[in-house]
Design a protein that fits this description.
By secondary structure, the chain is mainly beta. The protein contains 1 helix and 6 strands. The chain has one helix at 74-85, and strands at 5-14, 20-26, 30-31, 37-38, 51-60, 63-73. It has a 4-stranded antiparallel sheet. Strand 3 (30-31) and strand 4 form a beta hairpin. It is elongated and about 40 Å long.
């Protein structure tokens, strides 16, 4: 049976894990013409030269699915986003 994503949540922490910078749940996911789920998020208050950890949780009809990244810098996210818009 195929998993259906009901919503997602994400959390951004400082790289040492001591401070939560952002923690949100998104329920308005859209399915694009290619079948991929899409949403836009606005993240504020992050510093360009600071490393962060990022966790995404997909809430599905068959349980939760987790994705973690150990560290990233905000400029890496901006570069990847710009690359995807070209």
């Amino acid at each position: 049976m195929m998993r259906k994503v009901r919503n997602l949540s994400y959390e951004i922490r400082t790289s040492d894990g001591t401070k939560v910078m952002e923690n949100r749940t998104i329920k308005n996911l859209e399915t694009g013409s290619d079948g991929y789920l899409r949403t836009e998020i606005e993240i504020s208050g992050l510093l360009m030269n600071q490393e962060y950890s990022f966790q995404i949780t997909l809430w599905t009809n068959h349980g939760d699915v987790y994705y973690y990244t150990s560290s990233f810098k905000i400029w890496q996210l901006i570069q990847n986003s710009m690359r995807n818009c070209e």
